[in-house]
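Reopening this one. Same input as before:
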Amino acid sequence: MQVEAEKVRGEIRQFIVDTFLLGDESVNFSDSDSFMRKGIVDSMGILELTGFLEQKYGITVADNEMLPTNLDSVECLLGYIRKKLAG
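Same output, byte for byte:
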């Protein structure tokens, strides 16, 4: 499955704003900012994030894939989704 980067990036950003920033779009974060370091997503939030990925993109996030390198920024998530959908 081909991933449309800008579309997926927008979907991820919207989920983050809606779920963790309670719709406050005035909070600035770049696509490479760490969610954990910026205090946007905590360890419990990672579970919500993985649930979103599984439901939205039809992928399964294994326990050993719940790593910052996969889930801690918009860019990390985009790369992870691409990798999972590529097979």
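So the earlier flakiness isn't reproducible anymore. For the record, The chain has a mean pLDDT of 94.
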